[in-house]
Amino acid sequence: MYWLLITSKSAVPGDHATVANGDLITYTIWVTNVGNIPAPNVPISDSIPAGTIYVVGSAVPPQNSGPDPLVWILPSVLPGVPYSVSFTVLVAGAIGQGAFVNVAYVGGSPVTSTNEVVHVFAPTAIQLASLQARRGLDQDGYPIVTVTWVVLGETNTLGYRVYRSGTPDRGSATAATDGIVAATGVGGTYTFVDSVAALGQTWYYWVQEVEVNGNTHEYGPAAVAAGLPEMIRTFLPNLFK
User: Fold this and answer.
1) b/e map 43-52, b = 16+ CB within 10 Å
2) Which residue has the higher pLDDT, 202 or 236?
3) Which H or E element spans position 57?
4) Total-model pTM
């Protein structure tokens, strides 16, 4: 009678995909017991890749400790049943060789490592200095939110879209802009005035850069709290040379 664990790791986007600042990477660690008795109290440990930021609350199931390293304890891994844990990171800038490498470790004695997952870093076509959302009133006294982003430089940028959500979940956001805010080609300060966002709740904003080849990169969120007086939440990206 014995238990034996085999492990693997996958990711979205997949292994050796290209990512840029503001992109999300979701890692999944798989564990299967190919023995014939349950494996008790199996630890899984995974460190956040350098140059990325853990997305708080993204661990499924919630981790036992962390976030760096993230640690899960599986109470029992039954024979022949695949188990998985996952988490998401935000790309903030590559360190060293221009790639993100991630590997997880499973079990206590012995410890089994998963395969490496590598993502190649590609700098975005813009250098975003800041993204800010600010509550105010228009000239007729109606409430508005002014979204402002400052770009230090642009390359092959067609323009920008602004997305809005009542939660920090990007998947729930919808376009706030009717079309694209045209890029100047050299950067500068851009502004979008949102007259739709109600006073009674917090709103979150993302800016999406649209390149001439159709590729997109996203930044944010910046947020404004419900109601007046003015409350400001600023998104400040990490800038890497």
Assistant:
1) ebbbebbebb
2) 202
3) none
4) 0.56
